[in-house]
Amino acid sequence: MAKVASLAVMCIAAMVMTMFTAHAEAYVTCGTVATDLSPCLDYVRMGGAIPVTCCNGIRSLFSAASSTQDRQTVCSCLKSAAGAINGVNLQLAAALPSRCGVNIPYKISPSIDCSKVQ
Fold it and tell me: For residue 28, what are the CA distances in angstroms to 2, 15, 50, 77, 109?
């Protein structure tokens, strides 16, 4: 009986550790997205020259988004921002990653289904 109880406790501990490990792998948040992309805000509102700090932020963000969950989080944050920030030119925003040399597998748009981003 003690062996069964000990085995049960070990299984529960392993499940809890697995849950925390899986959660720990995803570390990109909307705060990260906002921080990395804040230098891009004037560009997506008014156009002009793309600031170097904007492209650096895009590269940093997309290299940090190494898991599917991270990429879906980035997508969701961009989707929300594209629909919520006044004056954003969606064509400029959608073209920005490629203009900075970063290829993303989706178009930045308020209508994207981020659950399908891999």
Answer: 43, 23, 24, 10, 19
Amino acid letter, 118:
Q
Write out the two tokens for 98: 């490629």
**Model confidence pLDDT, tens digit, residues 76-97:** 998 888 777 888 888 898 899 9
Name residue, tokens 């009986």: 1
pLDDT digits (tens, 9 = 90+) for 44-84: 999 999 999 999 999 999 899 999 999 999 999 988 887 77
Tokens standing for 72?
């879906």
| Sole residue written with tokens 């849950």 | 19
Q: Are 52 and 40 in contact (CB under 8 A)?
A: no
Q: Is 106 helix (H, G, I), strand (E, B) or coil?
A: coil
What letter does residue 107 receive in the DSSP assignment?
Answer: -
Q: Global pTM?
A: 0.73
- Which residue type does 16 have? V
